[in-house]
């Protein structure tokens, strides 16, 4: 089991800001400048024969006042459990990142993009609302000397279901929707 976290804070300065006395400058504390502050617990448990139980619980919070992020959910960034089989892949269930975030994240400097979620094509079928999807079931195959296969089922609160299958070649970066 691993306890992890990140606090991202900084200072913001802006000039030519409207103030009650006219125009001036503003200097203030800034929370989540490059990434959202977070802490989490992730772990694996070997079940034998190459099978592992896996999980990740990740909380988002404001470093300014400690309030919860993601609408006040305790583990609003990620909360999923699953199984991982060596040579086969992993099956995970819960609130987790979409495939678009999985792909873009790995190729961005510092694992974040300057565009944030805008680079992840929010509101397509892969991401109905954001880069984190509630009530999702996600399968990612192991790399089998070439493309890997990923399939996800987003079970949305509105009873609408979206299923997306992607084939991803880890060598060329090519992604094809099936």
Helix content: under 10%
Question: What is the end-to-end distance?
Answer: 36 Å
Morphology: elongated
Largest sheet: 9 strands, antiparallel
Output the strand order for the largest sheet.
1-4-5-6-7-8-9-10-11
Uncertain segments are: 113-126, 168-178
What's the tally of helices? 1
The total beta strand count reads 11
List the helices and strands in order: EEEEEEEHEEEE
Helix/strand/pairing category: mainly beta
Mean pLDDT over the residues = 77
Radius of gyration, rounded?
A: 19 Å
How many domains? The number is 2
| Beta-strand residue percentage | over 45%
Membrane topology: Multi-pass membrane protein
GO molecular function, one term: porin activity
Protein name: Porin
Organism: Caballeronia terrestris
Structure description:
The protein is mainly β and 178 residues long. The protein folds into two domains: 1-86, no CATH class; 89-178, no CATH class. Helices cover 5% and strands 53% of the residues. It is built from one helix and eleven strands; from the N terminus they run βββββββαββββ. The protein has one helix spanning 99-107, and strands at 2-6, 9-19, 22-31, 38-48, 51-60, 78-85, 89-97, 132-141, 147-155, 161-169, 175-177. The chain has a nine-stranded antiparallel β-sheet with strand order 1-4-5-6-7-8-9-10-11. Strands 2-3 form a two-stranded antiparallel ribbon. The radius of gyration is 19 Å and the shape is elongated. 19% of the residues are buried. Residues 113-126 and 168-178 have low confidence and may be disordered.
């Amino acid at each position: 089991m691993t306890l992890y976290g990140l606090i991202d804070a900084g200072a913001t300065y802006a000039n030519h800001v409207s103030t009650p006395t006219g125009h001036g400058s503003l200097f203030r504390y800034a929370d989540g400048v490059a990434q959202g502050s977070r802490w989490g617990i992730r772990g694996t448990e070997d079940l034998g024969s190459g099978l592992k139980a896996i999980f990740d619980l990740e909380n988002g919070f404001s470093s300014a006042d400690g309030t919860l992020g993601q609408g006040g959910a305790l583990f609003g960034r990620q909360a999923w459990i699953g199984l991982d089989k060596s040579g086969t892949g992993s099956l995970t269930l819960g609130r987790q990142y979409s495939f678009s975030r999985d792909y873009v994240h790995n190729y961005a400097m510092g694992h974040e993009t300057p565009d944030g979620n805008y680079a992840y094509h929010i509101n397509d079928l892969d991401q109905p609302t954001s880069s984190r999807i509630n009530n999702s079931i996600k399968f990612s195959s192991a790399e089998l000397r070439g493309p890997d296969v990923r399939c996800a089922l987003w079970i949305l609160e509105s009873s609408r279901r979206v299923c997306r299958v992607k084939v991803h070649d880890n060598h060329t970066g090519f992604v094809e929707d099936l």
